[in-house]
UniProtKB/TrEMBL annotation:
SMART domains: HTH_MARR. InterPro entries: HTH_MarR-typ, MarR/SlyA-like, WH-like_DNA-bd_sf, WH_DNA-bd_sf. One of its GO terms (molecular function) is DNA-binding transcription factor activity. Residues 1-147 form the HTH marR-type domain. PROSITE patterns: HTH_MARR_2. This is Transcriptional regulatory protein. Pfam families: MarR_2 (PF12802). GO terms for biological process: response to stress.
Amino acid sequence: MGMQAKPRPAATPEQALSAMDHLIATHLVGQHEIAQQVGLSVTDLTCFAYVIEAGENLPTAGDLAARVHVTTGAVTGILNRLERAGYITRLPDPTDRRRIRVAARPEAVARVREVYEPYYARLAELFADYSPDEIAVLNDWFTRASALAANYLEEHCRPD
């Protein structure tokens, strides 16, 4: 489309870090409010979001424990609550009957999407304001910062 990068206001790494902190803080509050709207805790909603994200590749309880940075014992509690609330079903792994896979219930996915979709539509509009090169930089930064955060949590907040 030949979208030109627009002139952006200059910023220091410190200003960018501060802007990131504001986004994350707003997101944390927002996650809490959205979780309340759908009747879940933030941890349960986060766990459910990972189940949705996994799509056809149904995650195991262990996969979810690793993603959400909680113990497998804690995941059992989360899955019990999600199952009771009608968000997930547990299915035996076809290759290993002892292993349980977690599937999202379609009506629950629809309920959560309804809450998130208007927000993501606005974010999509915001991304449309950036050139492909700028989006590549944003994606690279988000991806690497996520890995850095996950590694830091592994090192400093291991749930044993």
